[in-house]
Amino acid sequence: MFSNLLVKTFIKDSENIENEDVRNKYGYLAGIVGIIANFILFAVKLSVGLLTSSIAIMADAFNNLSDMASSVITIVGFKLASIPPDKEHPFGHGRLEYISALIVAFMVMLVGFQFVKSSIDRILNPVPIKFEIIPFILLFISILVKIWLSSFNKFMGGKINSSALKAASVDAMGDVFTSSTVLVSFLAAKFTNLPIDGYAGIIVSVAILYAGYSLVKETISPLLGEAPDPELVRGINQAILSYEHIQGVHDLIIHNYGVGKSIASVHAEIPADIDIMTIHDIIDTAEREISEKFKTHLVIHMDPICIETEEVAYTKSEVEKIIKYNPVIKSMHDFRIVGHGEHQSIIFDVVVDNDKMVKIMTEEELKEDIINAIKDVHPEYNCIITIDRDFH
């Protein structure tokens, strides 16, 4: 409820999240709230750590300081990502949001490494911890603040589909665990002289390192070119097939240039005997409407389907029987027979499961298997096969 109140108060037209300016305001608000909250937590925990001589509490304090810095980077990332396209970057600068999240991840890991060292030193050279009730209460309140901050970032990240804010939410929830560990170790110091503080510091440091690693893994994937969202793939395919005369789709490729900034290309199968101007109008309409619906720039290539004669239909059925037993093949398309007499060729594409393909056989081995099987049944045909890998 409080998250909604903040959004309604500080973001005008907050429901219009498709608007880039509105989306950026969500990022700015989340960043500012993160800066304020984490600075307060840093100041409180650093004071408590210094008063009680607890390395675990001070490690947790500097973890909050790194979170504050990450909020600053988040704001900068949103600002840079909104820079309009230019000559050097014709598809915009949306990926800078991922880069900002990656920088945050490395900062988190740096803090973790620093405090692993400090915690080991504390175990080897113990320092008495002074337990006091007021610092204990302040630490408990800080945990509640982090729980809310995680929920807030999750709400904001989900609202605008931001990997940076979702990463901040996960990081904040990880802080809840580390702060709880610190709280328990601080309480335990009241009952024992063992260097529990140092061990708790190591636990906190390892948790910080794991959080940083998780963030690196999550943010570097779209930069490397991860597979598109299966729901987006399914939605685009179904939308194209809803248009008149389009009988099949294949070879959908989606390039991501940041949240809400993608380019897609696909092949649409159409009967070869349809008037070219008629199908051109249909394709133009499909490109425009689907691009608007899915917030992507879609380009559709027309693939004319060979008019099925009795020979084509029979041969296609035979080939389908041959390839359906191969575990790497998912489907076949663009089947046609060209040439005459002794110079006839079967031409078609097969879509393969990329993961299975890598483990079982090479493209050349697959082509050879298919050609040999076809030649056993139809030695009169030459075979021209194209392998399409399904990366979705």
From TrEMBL:
Membrane topology (UniProt): Multi-pass membrane protein
Record-linked Gene3D superfamilies: Cation efflux protein transmembrane domain, Cation efflux protein, cytoplasmic domain
Record domain Cation efflux protein cytoplasmic: where: 228-304
Location of this chain's protein in the cell: Membrane
Molecular function GO terms recorded: monoatomic cation transmembrane transporter activity
Any Pfam family: ZT_dimer
Keywords: Membrane, Transmembrane, Transmembrane helix, Transport
All copies of domain Cation efflux protein transmembrane, residue ranges: 32-224
Transmembrane segments: 26-48, 68-84, 96-116, 128-149, 170-192, 198-216
Record-level GO cellular component terms: membrane
Entries under PANTHER family matching the protein: MITOCHONDRIAL METAL TRANSPORTER 1-RELATED
Family, similarity comment: Belongs to the cation diffusion facilitator (CDF) transporter (TC 2.A.4) family.
Name the record gives this protein: Co/Zn/Cd efflux protein
Naturally occurring in which organism (per UniProt): Romboutsia ilealis
